[in-house]
Amino acid sequence: MKKLALLSILTLTSFILFSQTEKRLIPSATLKNMEGANVNTSDFNNDGKPMIINFWATWCSPCKRELNNIAEVYGDWVKTTGVKLIAVSIDDARNAGKVAPYVNGKAWEYEVYIDSNQDFKRALNVNNVPHTFLVNGKGEIVWQHNSYLEGDEDELYEALKKLAAGEDL
Q: What are the angstrom distances between the C-alpha of 165 and each of 9, 117, 119, 151?
């Protein structure tokens, strides 16, 4: 019995350590761009530089606060790290028509896509929004954060700077 318990503990520990160090690639899913054309997420790249993928919705106040706060400093982030931000709306077909007017009104400089069927959301196990992923230049997800409180963008920027400097997260 002691051997079985020890084996179970070792197996669980190995699984936890492995799952924390495993880097996942961006999964493939089809989204719509702002013009309504299909785009496959496997085509997302930034020429070897980091990317931020942020899931949001027009009905989500914290989502909009986060993306609007990042918009204020995004130009500086691009200059210092070369980052590209991809904002993925999970608004369903009923609300998808609200995305473009909102984005255009805010003049975001992000790439914005709509995941109306929520295939990409499910592929990344996003349960609620906002949910932010940091992706390295190889297309591997290396960091993620769920929810938003004022100042969380500072934590994201610190992780982004480390990644851009070649440090592991």
A: 37, 36, 32, 22
Q: How many CB atoms lie within 10 A of CB 6?
A: 10
Radius of gyration of the chain (CA): 18
Residue 131, SS3? strand
Q: Could you read off the pLDDT tens digit of each residue along the chain, which spans 169 residues?
A: 555 544 444 444 444 444 444 679 999 999 999 999 999 999 999 999 999 999 999 999 999 999 999 999 999 999 999 999 999 999 998 999 999 999 999 989 999 999 999 999 999 999 999 999 999 999 999 999 999 999 999 999 999 999 999 888 8
Q: How many CB atoms lie within 10 A of CB 141?
A: 18
- Give bridge partners of residue 143 from the DSSP assignment: 134
* Domains in the chain with CATH codes: 24-164 (3.40.30.10)
Are 60 and 128 contacting, i.e. CB atoms less than 8 angstroms apart?
no
Q: What is the pTM of this model?
A: 0.85
**Amino acid letter, 40:** N
DSSP 44: -
Question: Cα dihedral angle (139, 141, 142, 146), rounded to 10 degrees?
Answer: 150
Supply angle C-alpha 96, 118, 53, rounded to 5.
Answer: 90
CA distance 122 to 131: 12
